[in-house]
From TrEMBL:
InterPro entries: Asp/hSer_DH_NAD-bd (IPR005106), HDH (IPR016204), HDH_cat (IPR001342), HDH_CS (IPR019811), NAD(P)-bd_dom_sf (IPR036291). Its EC number is 1.1.1.3. It comes from Candidatus Enterococcus willemsii. This is Homoserine dehydrogenase. Keywords: Amino-acid biosynthesis, Methionine biosynthesis, NADP, Oxidoreductase, Threonine biosynthesis. The keyword NADP applies. Pathway: Amino-acid biosynthesis; L-methionine biosynthesis via de novo pathway; L-homoserine from L-aspartate: step 3/3; Amino-acid biosynthesis; L-threonine biosynthesis; L-threonine from L-aspartate: step 3/5. It is an enzyme of class 1 (oxidoreductase). The keyword NADP applies. Residues 139-317 form the Homoserine dehydrogenase catalytic domain. Belongs to the homoserine dehydrogenase family.
Length: 418
């Protein structure tokens, strides 16, 4: 029976150093509960990186050679916290092929190459776990695989990027500028090393791809998603949305309709009465509708060193338990269904449209031509904002085209139903 799990870690950045600390603090409790002494003993750092003091404090051997970790026969598992696709993909592949279990927080990689990597893990009879890749400290993936097997999810939507939620909160509550709010999110360790993926909705899109796999068993690619970020969101739109009774949040949605899915990410008008509207700063919330449980929401810090590190270590604990019980390398998510995307005419939503360069009458004509009903119309010095009744994507595309021919569609956002 296995009594020790020796681990190598790739990367000692924000989450890597946090993982070492979290394990050091919880090692005794983990041993008590699992019967396994889990320890991180070796770390891969970049040449020239100064981690000597940290390594001494936590009794780590440092190396700049990948092979010294993935080919070390005394190690059972490897944590990958380098991020991005290359060389993380090659590093994980090497670890799996050397018979090491792998834990990663890498959403970019798991969303784009997860299926392939899981196959490599299976072929080598080891586990590949990635709880920390979605919603930081919220234990959402394991919850979906365990607690929702007896249920059927119909939609899963949420705030899954801590950086942008932090920025939107600061911009709204403190009047902080976009640039300053982003700088703060970077300083606090929430943002990606290149924050483009945060602000343009790509990071949230990766997480929605993974959530869609776990919720419906379907693999969708980024190209299948409609993705918008928060770049260029104006004070005017934030204020107008509030006047209508909504907060603007960057929301990822994965909706199942008649066996098909539609996945999107974008700024959404969330009713002020909805639980997601109250989520602030770097916190995330994943709101699920399902036929059994009904409505449920999982809430917690979506970014940051210790919350994300805690999810990383929870994966190590799962591996330790499996090893102790002699369970042969289970994978995280075995649920697989053929991909089926919802046709545009069946993707129904209400929209917030901000239009300039067109008079009210002309805009009304455009809407009428596409049988789109305006529930609200506000004209502020020629900038017209419309809240539509529910329409399908074909109607939306036709309105957008007609507006673009006569004026400018400055902003289009989905409106979440109450
Ligand atoms: N940059 C990510 C975020 C980190 O802000 O949510 C956690 O995945």
């Amino acid at each position: 029976m296995k009594e020790q799990l020796r681990v190598g870690i790739l990367g000692l950045g924000v989450v890597g150093s946090g993982s070492v600390k979290v394990l050091a603090e919880q090692q005794a409790k983990i041993k008590e509960q699992t019967g396994v002494e889990v320890s991180i003993v070796k770390a891969l750092i970049r040449p020239g990186e100064d981690k000597e003091a940290f390594a001494k404090e936590f009794q780590l051997t440092l190396t700049t050679e990948l092979s010294e970790i993935v080919e070390d026969p005394s190690l059972d598992a490897v944590i990958e916290l380098i991020g991005k696709i290359h060389p993380a993909k090659e590093f994980i592949t090497a670890a799996l092929e050397n018979g090491k279990h792998v834990v990663t927080a890498n959403k970019d990689l798991m969303a784009q190459h997860g299926v392939e990597l899981v196959e490599i893990a299976k072929a080598n009879n080891v586990s590949l776990f990635y709880e920390a890749s979605v919603a930081g400290g919220i234990p959402i993936l394991r919850t979906l695989t365990a607690n929702y097997l007896a249920d059927e999810i119909t939609n899963i939507r949420g705030i899954v990027n801590g950086t942008t939620n932090y920025m939107l909160t600061k911009m709204l509550e403190d009047g902080t500028s976009y640039e300053e709010a982003l700088a703060q999110a970077q300083e606090l360790g929430f943002a990606e090393s290149d924050p483009t993926n945060d602000v343009d909705g790509i990071d949230a899109a990766y997480k929605m791809v993974i959530l869609t796999q776990f919720a419906y068993g379907m693999d969708v690619a980024l190209i299948d998603l409609e993705i918008q970020g928060i770049r260029g969101l104006s004070d005017q739109d934030v204020a107008q949305a509030q006047a209508f009774g909504y907060e603007i949040k960057l929301i990822g949605e994965s909706v199942k309709t008649a066996g098909t899915v539609n996945v999107s990410v974008g700024p959404v008008l969330v009713p002020q009465t909805h639980a997601l509207a109250s989520i602030k700063n770097e916190y995330n919330g994943v709101f699920i509708n399902s036929t059994g449980i009904g409505q449920s929401m999982f809430y917690g810090p979506g970014a940051g060193s210790l919350p994300t590190a805690t999810s990383v270590i929870s994966d190590l604990v799962a591996i330790a338990k499996n090893e102790r019980l002699g369970i042969s390398a289970p994978q995280f998510n075995e649920y697989r269904r053929p991909q089926a995307l919802t046709p545009d005419e069946q993707v129904i939503a209400s929209y917030y449209l901000a239009v300039t360069g067109i008079g009210q009458e002309d805009l009304q004509t455009i809407l009428q031509n596409e049988t789109v009903t305006a529930k609200e119309v506000v004209d502020t010095n020629g900038r017209i904002v419309v809240l539509t009744a529910p329409i399908n994507r074909l109607q939306l595309a036709a309105v957008e085209e007609a507006v673009a021919n006569k004026g400018t569609l400055e902003r289009r956002m989905r409106v979440m139903e109450a």
